[in-house]
């Protein structure tokens, strides 16, 4: 049965802000051997394409280890999705994959897509499978935190003084807007020229519910919400702004501001520390979250959670399938590990288990391990597998650090 969470979720309070790298005086204590699991969860794993299977395998091992420590049990169900599913079944999201996802407590996705399927017709693209999955699970709220870890400040392309201390959350609307709006398609214009068209459309209820998630999120963070739109041009954005202002009256303790998306894109690299929580539509959120990720040093670091009103959440790194490095053991598994942490926290309410993963990621970085995307001179360059093994060691050695 799916956890009936979701909008009561305990909003994201980055665990990264406290120091957990200090040596733990109890760390030599031997942990109790695996307790009988008190709770059992079904987790659907969708490794997908490219580096997806590599990073999912790391996350699976970490979850397994956490389970033995916490006395919980995971029943993993691995299902095909994206290009892998296309090759196997002819569709990017097979019916069995969607129903397994719906029947589980949480879904962890690697990445989808690759050159091989780039020229497929739209309904046979891996990306279409992902959109169908989001729609099928009704996960309209996509949380994408971008936190600059002290260990990785120098991996950012921005100057230290600009990047240091950035800790923001993009709340992206995920099941509406131009990604899903109708009419859409191809046609011919009055001059006989071929056209492609899409529709940016939002209904009141869609804006209201994402606004509430964003206000709740901001309230549990630093109390600042910036709504990003293009209300100087687009009707859908005009309604967006009107509704966000309306919902704001329910949250007098949250400071609301509005920003046009072009300005927001500029402000994100000019002075990202001005942002706490950002709420925006589907396509602006897609773009701004990639931009925000680079402030942190690498897109290979950023997790995400997609939540609905009920039913399982979908958790995935925000990076893509990186076909150029697939199968070469070069991928950074940390975004997927942190997505697994979000799964534990938001999807299953297993806060302590989530903290274990976050702590272990930080500890592994503290010990100098880096994949290529976050490497700088003098540190230990490792591949995906070894990074995963080091994180497991950190989980193991920190067993008693989290009471
Ligand atoms: C993302 C991705 C997807 C999106 C693609 C793969 C459909 O870019 O999750 O950000 O556009 O939402
Ligand atoms: Mg994207």
TrEMBL record:
It holds the Pfam family Iso_dh. Residues 42-391 form the Isopropylmalate dehydrogenase-like domain. Its EC number is 1.1.1.85. SMART domains: Iso_dh (SM01329). SUPFAM superfamilies: Isocitrate/Isopropylmalate dehydrogenase-like. Binds 1 Mg(2+) or Mn(2+) ion per subunit. Pathway: Amino-acid biosynthesis; L-leucine biosynthesis; L-leucine from 3-methyl-2-oxobutanoate: step 3/4. Keywords: Amino-acid biosynthesis, Branched-chain amino acid biosynthesis, Leucine biosynthesis, Magnesium, Metal-binding, NAD, Oxidoreductase. Its cofactor is Mg(2+); Mn(2+). The keyword Signal does not apply. InterPro entries: IsoCit/isopropylmalate_DH_CS, IsoPropMal-DH-like_dom, Isopropylmalate_DH. It catalyses: (2R,3S)-3-isopropylmalate + NAD(+) = 4-methyl-2-oxopentanoate + CO2 + NADH. The keyword Chaperone does not apply. Belongs to the isocitrate and isopropylmalate dehydrogenases family. Homodimer. Catalyzes the oxidation of 3-carboxy-2-hydroxy-4-methylpentanoate (3-isopropylmalate) to 3-carboxy-4-methyl-2-oxopentanoate. The product decarboxylates to 4-methyl-2 oxopentanoate. This is 3-isopropylmalate dehydrogenase. It comes from Penstemon davidsonii. The lineage of its organism: Eukaryota, Viridiplantae, Streptophyta, Embryophyta, Tracheophyta.
């Amino acid at each position: 049965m799916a956890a009936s969470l979701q909008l009561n979720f305990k909003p994201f309070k980055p665990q990264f802000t406290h120091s957990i790298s200090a040596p733990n005086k109890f760390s030599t204590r031997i942990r109790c051997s695996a307790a009988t699991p008190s709770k059992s969860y079904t987790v659907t794993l969708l490794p997908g394409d490219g580096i997806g299977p590599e990073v999912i395998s790391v996350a699976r091992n970490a979850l397994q280890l956490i389970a033995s420590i916490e006395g919980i049990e995971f029943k993993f169900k691995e299902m095909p999705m994206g290009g892998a599913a296309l090759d196997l079944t002819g569709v990017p999201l097979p019916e069995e994959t969607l129903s397994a996802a719906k029947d589980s407590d949480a879904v962890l996705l690697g990445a989808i897509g690759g050159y091989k399927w780039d020229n497929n017709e739209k309904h046979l693209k891996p990306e279409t499978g992902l959109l169908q999955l989001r729609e099928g699970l009704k996960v309209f709220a996509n949380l994408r935190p971008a936190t600059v870890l002290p260990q990785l400040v120098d991996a950012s392309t921005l100057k230290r003084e600009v990047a240091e201390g950035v800790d923001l959350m993009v709340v992206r609307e995920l099941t509406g807007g131009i990604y899903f709006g109708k009419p859409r398609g191809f046609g011919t214009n009055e001059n006989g020229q071929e056209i492609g068209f899409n529709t940016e459309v939002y209904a009141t209820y869609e804006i209201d519910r994402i606004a509430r998630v964003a206000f709740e999120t901001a309230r549990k963070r630093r109390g600042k919400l910036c709504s990003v739109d293009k209300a100087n041009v687009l009707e859908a954005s005009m309604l967006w702004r009107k509704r966000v202002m309306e919902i704001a009256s329910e949250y007098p303790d949250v400071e609301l501001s509005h920003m046009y998306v072009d300005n927001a894109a500029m402000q994100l690299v000019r002075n990202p520390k001005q942002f706490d929580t950002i709420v925006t539509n589907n396509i602006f959120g897609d773009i701004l979250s990639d931009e925000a990720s680079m402030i942190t040093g690498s897109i290979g670091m950023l997790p995400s959670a997609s939540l609905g009103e009920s039913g399982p959440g979908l958790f995935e790194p925000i990076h893509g399938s990186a076909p150029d490095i697939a199968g070469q053991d070069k991928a950074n598994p940390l975004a997927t590990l942190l997505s697994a942490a979000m799964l534990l926290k938001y999807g299953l309410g297993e806060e302590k288990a989530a903290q274990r993963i976050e702590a272990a990621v930080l500890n592994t970085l503290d010990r100098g391990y880096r994949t290529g995307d976050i490497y700088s001179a003098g540190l230990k360059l490792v591949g995906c597998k070894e990074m995963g093994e080091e994180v497991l060691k950190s989980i193991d050695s920190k067993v008693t650090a989290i009471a």
